[in-house]
């Protein structure tokens, strides 16, 4: 028993630290140089592009298999739409037709930018049409009926939309009422408020030569305007690519090769200068529409806010997971209120464009299918209905798709009922693509 209680002796073959080989002694291990250069991070999505055409194809197929479709479906859709309607009517891609698409897309497109922010947040705003009507009614009441300074009336009309949106956001974020319910109540309530503001007037006509009238009726006839805007767009695009490339290199990250930057620049330049040519050169061309310039200005500003500011990152974070964003220290309530304020602001601004197109403010302005077209434009352009994913430029792409369909159907004599059915089918297809894309990304582990 005493032998069993003893501690086992160390086997003769075992080596104690004192007798272990030198190579096994940690103290004698080769020292690691403190000045060794850090290994730069590797981004496989950019590294594969260094392989040339093969790398680009590998990257493209990887994205498709992973469900990262981006703007590919809507771009292909636009090409198909252009071919089909051009075959049906040779004037579809004429200067006047392209100008009409640009002008009619601008007002609703500006409203669609606001809904993009809301959808990225993972919510919905059903009051966009009513807020647009209120904005137009406020402007008409202040300027036309009461003789207020035109610019001041416009500013107050837009700020009215801001206040309405912030009020919706307050009830949603602070009180806890679902955004669907809040904005549905707003849709009904602000429609009544719009009718009350109009009083006994069925409509208030836009004064001739006024700023609001010029929103959709003014064209820059000088060819320099269209070509100059195209040049500015290309320069800004190249500058953004070069800036992004230099920042990645400074951070020791793989950057886009020069060949890719050149290729992207050429594609964008050909596209924008082709549009400028169509608006300028053919017989009957009226030049660059002011409405398109303002729409692009809103897009650029909104895109900068969404992608280049801390607020934009917070919006995507809250849309991805509100609880995770809250735990990360983000003021979720503040972000939600601000997003709905943006939505209301752009809705009221878009309402002025609708008033310009229709010749004045009316009791029914913003009604009908206005809301559906705005939401459809954002979704068709690629913004997810499930939150956390979307681009501001999707408002432009989606609205061009919708207006191109309507313009083409009008030119071949289709009725409004057919237009609504086709637009609804396109919207459904966009949502189906979004759902399948998200499912594919989850399967591939990228969601």
Largest sheet: 2 strands, antiparallel
The low-confidence runs, each spanning 5 or more residues with pLDDT under 50, are 1-35
Total beta strand runs: 4
Radius of gyration: 29 Å
| CATH fold-level name of the largest domain | ABC transporter involved in vitamin B12 uptake, BtuC
CATH class label of the largest domain: Mainly Alpha
End-to-end Cα distance: 65 Å
Work out the helix count: 18
Task: Determine the fraction of residues in helical runs and give it as a percent range.
Answer: 55-70%
Taken in chain order, the helices and strands follow as: HHHHHHHHEHEHHEHHHHEHHH
Number of domains: 2
Strand percentage lies at under 5%
SS-based class: mainly alpha
The average pLDDT is: 84
CATH architecture of the largest domain: Orthogonal Bundle
Specify the overall morphology: globular
Read across the widest sheet, the strand sequence of neighbours is 1-4
Q: Characteristics of this structure?
A:
447 residues, mainly alpha, ABC transporter involved in vitamin B12 uptake, BtuC, 2 domains, two-stranded antiparallel sheet, two-stranded antiparallel ribbon, disordered N terminus
Describe this structure in words.
The structure is a single chain. Residues 1-35 have low confidence and may be disordered. The protein contains 18 helices and four strands. The protein has two domains: 70-217 and 302-443, ABC transporter involved in vitamin B12 uptake, BtuC (Orthogonal Bundle); 222-285, no CATH class. It has helices at 2-5, 44-47, 53-65, 72-88, 95-120, 128-145, 150-175, 179-198, 211-217, 223-250, 258-280, 290-308, 310-320, 322-327, 332-358, 370-380, 394-411, 416-443; strands at 203-205, 219-220, 288-289, 360-362. 68% of the residues lie in helices and 2% in strands. The longest helix has 28 residues, at 223-250. The strands form two sheets. It has a two-stranded antiparallel sheet. With 447 residues, the chain is an all-alpha fold.
């Amino acid at each position: 028993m005493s032998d069993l209680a003893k501690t086992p002796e160390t086997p003769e073959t075992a080596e104690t630290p004192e007798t272990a080989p030198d190579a096994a002694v940690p103290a004698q291990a080769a020292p690691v140089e403190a000045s060794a250069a850090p290994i730069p991070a590797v981004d496989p999505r950019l590294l594969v592009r260094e392989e040339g055409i093969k790398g680009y194809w590998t990257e493209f197929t990887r994205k498709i298999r992973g469900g990262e479709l981006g703007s590919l479906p809507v771009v292909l859709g636009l090409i198909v739409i252009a071919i089909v309607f051009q075959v049906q009517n040779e004037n579809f891609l004429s200067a006047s037709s392209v100008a009409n698409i640009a002008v009619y897309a601008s007002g609703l497109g500006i409203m669609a930018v606001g809904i993009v922010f809301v959808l990225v947040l993972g919510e919905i705003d059903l009051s966009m049409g009513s807020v647009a009507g209120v904005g137009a009614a406020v402007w008409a009441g202040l300027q036309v009926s009461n003789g207020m300074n035109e610019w001041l009336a416009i500013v107050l009309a837009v700020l009215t939309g801001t206040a309405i949106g912030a009020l919706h956001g307050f009830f949603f974020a602070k009180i806890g009422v679902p955004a669907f319910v809040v904005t549905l109540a707003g849709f009904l309530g602000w429609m009544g408020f719009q009718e009350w503001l109009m009083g006994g007037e069925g409509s208030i006509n836009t004064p001739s030569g006024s700023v609001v009238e010029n929103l959709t009726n003014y064209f820059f006839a000088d060819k320099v305007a269209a070509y100059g805007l195209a040049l500015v767009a290309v320069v800004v695009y190249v500058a953004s690519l070069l800036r992004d490339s230099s920042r990645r290199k400074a951070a020791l990250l793989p950057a886009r090769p020069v060949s890719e930057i050149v290729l992207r620049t050429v594609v964008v330049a050909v596209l924008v200068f082709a549009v400028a040519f169509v608006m300028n050169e053919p017989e009957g061309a009226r030049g660059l529409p002011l409405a398109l310039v303002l729409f692009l200005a809103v897009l650029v500003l909104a895109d900068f806010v969404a992608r280049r500011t801390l607020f934009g990152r917070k919006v995507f974070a809250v849309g991805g997971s509100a609880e995770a964003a809250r735990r990360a220290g983000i003021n979720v309530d503040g972000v939600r209120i601000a997003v709905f304020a943006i939505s209301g602001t752009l809705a009221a601004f878009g309402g002025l464009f609708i008033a310009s197109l229709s010749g004045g403010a009316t009791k029914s302005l913003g009604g009908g299918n206005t809301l559906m077209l705005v939401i459809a434009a954002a979704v068709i352009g690629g913004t997810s209905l499930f939150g956390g994913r979307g681009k501001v430029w999707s408002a432009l792409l989606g609205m061009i798709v919708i207006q191109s369909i309507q313009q083409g159907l009008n030119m071949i004599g289709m009725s409004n009922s057919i237009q609504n059915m086709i637009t609804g089918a396109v919207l459904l297809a966009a949502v189906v693509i979004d759902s399948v894309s998200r499912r594919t990304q989850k399967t591939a582990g990228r969601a």
